[in-house]
Design brief:
This protein has 331 residues and is of the alpha/beta class. The protein has two domains: 95 residues, 2-Layer Sandwich (Enolase-like, domain 1), CATH 3.30.390; 214 residues, Enolase-like C-terminal domain (TIM Barrel, Alpha-Beta Barrel). It contains twelve helices and twelve strands. It has a seven-stranded parallel sheet with strand order 5-6-7-8-9-10-11. Strand 2 and strand 3 form a beta hairpin. Helix 2 crosses helix 12 and helix 9 runs parallel beside helix 10. The longest helix has 19 residues.
C-alpha cells in the first residue's frame, strides 16, 4: 500500500480535545487526531509526551486502518472489561457505573504518590461490588520492582486476581517475578514489554509472561499485531490507549481477527470520556462492544476541536511522523 502524502493527510485531519469523566494517566483532556481515509475514519493519537520515533508507529497503524484492507474476522462482538483509574475507594462505584453491567474490571495500581494500602483498598472495593464471581486484574504499568510486586501479590491475594499486568518494567524482572510466583497460578501479562520494546517477542522467548496485552496503534496496525501474537504463541488480550470510539473500533477489529480470545479486552474505555467524536460511542453494553467501523460526526469534530495552537502542534507532528515513515525500509 502506497503511503498517502503529507498533504493528503493534512487535508483530512481533525484535531480534538475531549474532556475525561475521570482523571486518568495524569490528564483530564485527551487530544487526538482523526483522519478520513478511503476505507473509513481512523485515529492518530499517541500521547503527547511520546517522541516522534514512537509516535510514527501509531501513524503507520492509522494509515493501515484508514487506507488499507480489513483482516478476516472470526467474531462480531468483543467482551470487554471496565477500566478503573487509581481513584479512592469511595469513587469506585461512580466510575464503574459508567461501564454498565460488567464481569471484569482492570484496576490501576502502583500510582505515583500512592501506597500499596491504597491499591488494596481500591481492589477490595471492586471485589465487594463484583461479588465472588467477578474477575479482577490489576495493572501496575511497570511501577513495581520484583520485591514490591511479590509483596503486592501477597497483599492482593485475598481478592482472587485474574492476572497481574506489567507488574515490573523490564523483561528480566518479569521473568524473576514469574519464577517466584510459579506455584501461585497467578498469570503475568506483558503490555509495555511488548508495545514499547525494540523486540516485542523477547518477553515470550524469555518465558517472562503468560499472556500478551496488544494494542493495534502502538504496534503499527492490526496486521503487525496479529503477526506478533502468532509468533509469540501466547494468549492475547487486546487493549486500548484511551482512544476515541474510532480508535477503539480499530482495536475491536484486531480482537475480532484473533483466532482465540479467552479474556475480556480493554476496549471499553469510551466510558471514561465525557465526550466523543461520534453520537454513538462504543460504550460497553452488557460487557460487550460490536465490531463495526465508527464514523466521526462533523458537528462533534467542530464542537470539540482543539485550540488553534494545539491543532498546529499536531499537524507539525503529523508531518514529522510521515517523514519518518518515508524513511522506513519496506517490509
Amino acid at each position: 500500500m502506497a503511503l498517502p502524502s503529507g498533504n493528503e493527510l493534512r487535508d483530512v485531519a481533525h484535531v480534538v480535545a475531549l474532556p475525561l469523566a475521570t482523571r486518568f494517566r495524569g490528564i483530564e483532556v485527551r487530544e487526538a487526531m482523526l483522519l478520513r481515509g478511503p476505507s473509513g475514519w481512523t485515529e492518530f493519537s499517541p500521547f503527547v509526551e511520546y517522541a516522534d520515533a514512537e509516535a510514527s508507529t501509531w501513524l503507520a497503524a492509522a494509515i493501515d486502518y484508514g487506507w488499507g484492507d480489513d483482516p478476516d474476522l472470526v467474531r462480531d462482538v468483543i467482551p470487554v472489561n471496565a477500566t478503573l483509574p487509581a481513584v479512592a475507594p469511595d469513587e469506585v462505584g461512580a466510575v464503574l457505573d459508567r461501564f454498565g453491567a460488567t464481569r471484569t474490571v482492570k484496576v490501576k495500581v502502583a500510582e505515583r504518590g500512592q501506597s500499596l494500602a491504597d491499591d488494596v483498598a481500591r481492589v477490595r472495593a471492586v471485589r465487594e461490588r463484583l461479588g465472588p464471581a467477578g474477575r479482577i486484574r490489576v495493572d501496575a504499568n511497570g511501577g513495581w520492582n520484583v520485591d514490591e510486586a511479590e509483596h503486592a501479590a501477597h497483599a492482593l491475594s485475598p481478592y482472587d486476581l485474574e492476572y497481574l499486568e506489567q507488574p515490573c518494567a523490564t523483561v528480566s524482572e518479569l521473568a524473576e517475578l514469574r519464577s517466584r510466583l510459579k506455584d501461585w497460578q497467578l498469570p503475568i501479562a506483558a503490555d509495555e514489554s511488548v508495545r514499547k520494546a525494540a523486540d516485542p517477542l523477547l518477553v515470550a522467548r524469555e518465558g517472562a509472561a503468560d499472556l500478551l496485552v496488544v494494542k493495534a496503534a502502538p504496534l503499527g496496525g492490526i496486521a503487525a499485531a496479529l503477526r506478533i501474537v502468532a509468533a509469540a504463541g501466547l494468549p492475547a488480550i487486546v487493549s486500548s490507549a484511551l482512544d476515541t470510539s474510532v480508535g477503539l473500533a480499530m482495536g475491536a477489529r484486531l480482537a475480532a481477527a484473533l483466532p482465540g480470545l479467552d479474556f475480556d479486552c480493554g476496549l471499553g474505555t469510551a466510558a471514561l470520556l465525557a465526550a466523543d467524536v461520534t453520537a454513538h460511542p462504543l460504550i460497553p453494553r452488557e460487557g460487550r462492544i460490536p465490531v463495526d467501523r465508527v464514523d466521526a460526526d462533523t458537528d462533534l469534530l467542530e464542537q470539540w476541536a482543539a485550540p488553534a495552537e494545539r491543532r498546529d502542534w499536531w499537524l507539525a507532528r503529523l508531518d514529522r511522523c510521515r517523514e519518518l515513515l518515508s524513511d522506513t525500509p519496506a517490509g
